[in-house]
Amino acid sequence: xxxxxxxxxxxxxxxxxxxxxxxxxxxxxxxxxxxxxxxxxxxxxxxxxxxxxxxxxxxxxxxxxxxxxxxxxxxxxxxxxxxxxxxxxxxxxxxxxxxxxxxxxxxxxxxxxxxxxxxxxxxxxxxxxxxxxxxxxxxxxxxxxxxxxxxxxxxxxxxxxxxxxxxxxxxxxxxxxxxxxxxxxxxxxxxxxxxxxxxxxxxxxxxxxxxxxxxxxxxxxxxxxxxxxxxxxxxxxxxxxxxxxxxxxxxxxxxxxxxxxxxxxxxxxxxxxxxxxxxxxxxxxxxxxxxxxxxxxxxxxxxxxxxxxxxxxxxxxxxxxxxxxxxxxxxxxxxxxxxxxxx
Length: 343
Ligand code: KG4
Ligand code: ZN
Prior knowledge:
By secondary structure, the chain is an alpha/beta fold. It has helices spanning 33-37, 44-66, 85-102, 111-117, 161-172, 178-186, 213-221, 223-226, 235-261, 276-283, 302-314, and strands at 2-7, 12-19, 23-31, 75-81, 106-110, 129-134, 139-146, 149-155, 265-269, 289-291. The strands form two sheets. The chain has a five-stranded mixed beta sheet, sandwiched between helices. The protein has a five-stranded mixed beta sheet with strand order 8-7-6-9-10, with helices on both faces.
């Protein structure tokens, strides 16, 4: 089955053709970064306008790069939630119209589940495994029992990890988008230059939760308090210390989840899964199989949407023309006491 995937939930206008949920025939990602850079953040009105202008061409390019015509497509998958509602609506409306005009089945997919599917486009992984979804809008540690079956172990109690990268980078003028700018600077810095405090959320329902608002405030407003005066206060050192604190917080919670569940496979997804330090720390952890999407599939892309869309369409799921976009999703089922994984 060849599925056309459409992704317009934020600032990437993307479309892909994927065969049988695995073989990527094309994956066109038209980034809007230059249009949002001067505001150092995504401007929702600009994002939806650009999607409306670009989507027909991006879909056309995805088909031509895949070497297929519209008739060769067996179904359409589109991100329907969560995201910026104006942006989502462009993709959902286009997908519905395109599928209706050509008489193809279509299905709306959840962006979070699509990110967790991204590494499965190229790897064989057995369920269950632990999922680490880290992006500009989400921070989740979860147990994944199927492509559409996840239970939340931990999440952020305030800001998403990518948001903390973006806001810290914005404050220091490191560049936009912030996560990539910090990653690049950090490679030339020394994380020992600053010892940021780590929130103590050890107990009960917060055992796997993270919190980034304290780190963000410390990095932006209280640098003097935590800085080691033996080190020069360079952008590289600030970036390295911030990155280590932000990523180590994720790793400590993930470590608890690995120990408690006995699950030894971690699948990461989302823009922050592109982070060099996170990737090397997880890949270097003995006894753990860590799977990351290739860098081009970490951020928002149509291939992950077409990939997971295949799973739904294959089992007969269809959406009707009443499919709507929704900016939020109800939080997935939360697991208080994780069951052992090797059952
Ligand atoms: O998944 P994504 O493209 O969009 C959302 O669904 O949010 O993730 C974007 C986030 C941004 O916060 C961006 O700064 C962050 O991913 N990011 C990174 C890196 N590349 C992108 N964060 C840390 N290190 C990176 N290399
Ligand atoms: Zn995303």
